[in-house]
Amino acid sequence: MLRLAVTGANGFLGWHVRVLARVLGWPEPVLIDRADLSDESRLAARLDGVDRVLHLAGVNRGNPVDVAAGNVELAAALVRGLRRCATAPATVVFANSVQAGNGTPYGDSKAVAAATLMAARPDLVDLRLPNLYGEHGRAYHNSVVATFCRLLAEGHVPEVQEDRAMALAHVTDAAALLLGVPAGGSWDPELPMLHLGVADLAERLTGWADTYRTGEIPPLADRHDMRLFNTYRSHCFPAHYPIPLARRADERGELVETVRMHGGTGQTFCSTTRPGATRGEHFHLVKMERFVVLRGTAEISLRRVGDDRVLRFAVSGREPVIVDMPTMWAHKLVNTGTEDLVTLFWTNELFDPARPDTYREPVEADRAAPVAVPA
């Protein structure tokens, strides 16, 4: 287990790095903020003796002069702190960009920042990351993927101003590369790329949004489709849930159609839960999981990993609804009634004990580091 220090820890990439470090069972990272970077003595104290420093902080939007100056100054500030450490960090990693040195204010400033860090740490691990996509990216800021997902989640239609080819990596894979960990069941530091055009992205996401509006699962052909769909779902949550289900009744009884998946694999199981008992208390990195209460009453509660706010949904078998668990949100179900609760659970993939993609984490109270658990 490595002791980490992270600049830019509250950004898109920084949050995913922290989630993966938590999955790995590492101690909570030392979070380096702008106040630390502006005080070299304070920064040196916070960096002293850590195993690995990840420099993720940067400026990629705004006035070109501010973008250029900001990236260089952030690197220079980190160097000043590193030079004052009594025990220098073992490894310093820079989240550079494939755009470094491309003649733009952003690209050239990233190249200068790398050179600044390298002058102080010739052993710098300089990683030139491609464009990234993934859950909870900021629309109009992190990527066109986040922007299109937000537009669709709000009921708008993405407009393609310029179609161009793109090569994208999922942010969890980039986090694994930055942390220096080998491939796992839900991450790959080799950065497998998603290749598509802007128009293709808009068409694919729009089709998925149309299908998912009523809770139907669109065809998801591969790993990137699943992660791209999870990215879209992250922009839908929590405003689009619960999703109501139609009940059909005749003299024989009632029928509720809980899952319609257009292609692909999946696994469905039903459980009873005693009054007051809890199921869940875990999160997933990739797996999609659906809860549908068929009999009884329950509360489904969720908390985004690293955050404190808990969201709650009161659900009942009298009016069945869909609540799909967003990736990287701890979730649980509690029977709030006086009789056994009957719940249908569905996941998009067959359970694999070797790669469960399930990490224990309480939704509330004391939050110990997660560990992989069986279903």
Automatic annotation (TrEMBL):
<dbReference type="Pfam" id="PF01370">
    <property type="entry name" value="Epimerase"/>
</dbReference>
<feature type="domain" description="Capsular polysaccharide assembling protein CapF C-terminal">
    <location>
        <begin position="249"/>
        <end position="359"/>
    </location>
</feature>
<dbReference type="InterPro" id="IPR014710">
    <property type="entry name" value="RmlC-like_jellyroll"/>
</dbReference>
<dbReference type="InterPro" id="IPR029303">
    <property type="entry name" value="CapF_C"/>
</dbReference>
<dbReference type="InterPro" id="IPR001509">
    <property type="entry name" value="Epimerase_deHydtase"/>
</dbReference>
<protein>
    <submittedName>
        <fullName>UDP-2-acetamido-2,6-beta-L-arabino-hexul-4-ose reductase</fullName>
    </submittedName>
</protein>
<dbReference type="Pfam" id="PF14667">
    <property type="entry name" value="Polysacc_synt_C"/>
</dbReference>
<dbReference type="InterPro" id="IPR036291">
    <property type="entry name" value="NAD(P)-bd_dom_sf"/>
</dbReference>
<feature type="domain" description="NAD-dependent epimerase/dehydratase">
    <location>
        <begin position="6"/>
        <end position="179"/>
    </location>
</feature>
<dbReference type="InterPro" id="IPR011051">
    <property type="entry name" value="RmlC_Cupin_sf"/>
</dbReference>
